[in-house]
Amino acid sequence: MSTKANFTPEEWAHVAGSPMVAGIAITAAEPSGIWGLLKESMAGGWAVLEAQHDESANPLVKAVADDIADPATRDAIKNAFQERFKGSTLPDAKAKAESELQAVAEILDQKAPDDAPAFKRWLLTVAQKTAEASTEGGFLGIGGVAVSDAEKTTLDEIANILGLGHVTA
Do 11 and 119 contact (CB within 8 A), yes or no? Predict the structure, then answer.
C-alpha cells in the first residue's frame, strides 16, 4: 500500500494534482462555454470527493483525495497549475496536461507499482466524468452530445498514456 510517504514532495505534487490535470485535458479538448467549464470543473471535484468518502477506494486514491481536502495542498496545486498553464492556448494546455499525465504514470509505475493500475483507472474515471458533465454542441443544450468526438479522442489518448489501452466513450 502506497502513501504520500512513498514519494518525494515534488513527486507527490504531481500525483496529487493529477485528477485536476485529467480534467484539464478533457476541458481543453472541447471547450463548452462558461457553464460547461463550470460543470466539467465540478465533475472533477465531485470525483475527488467521492473517492475521499469511498471506504473501498484504493489507498493511494484515498490518500490523494484526503490530501486535496487540505487547503494548503489545494493552494499549492492551484499555484503550480497557474505557473504551468499560464498563457497556454487550449491545444497547449491539452498537450501540457497529457505530458503531465505521462510523468505521473511514470512516477506511479516506479514508486507505487502495486497501486498504479487502480490509480490510473481512477484518473481515467475522473476524465470520463469530466467529459460527461456538459453537453457539447447543439444550442442551449438541445441537439448536443454527451461526449464529443474530441473528448472521446482525448479519453483514448489519456488511456494510452496511462497504459490502459483504448476506451469506449
Answer: no
Give this prediction's pTM: 0.87
Which triple of cell numbers denotes residue 45? 471535484
Contact 3, 67 (CB under 8 A): no
- The conformation of residue 86, written as its DSSP 8-state character, comes to T
Q: What share of the chain is helix, strand, coil (3-state, %, to 5)?
A: 70, 0, 25
Residue 140: phi, psi to the nearest 5? Answer: 55, 40
**How confident is the model over 16-34, as pLDDT tens digits?**
999 999 999 998 988 777 7
At 44, the amino acid letter reads G
Q: At what angle do helices 33-53 and 59-68 cross, to 10 degrees?
A: 120
List the beta bridge partners of residue 142: 139
CA 143 to centroid of chain Cα atoms: 27
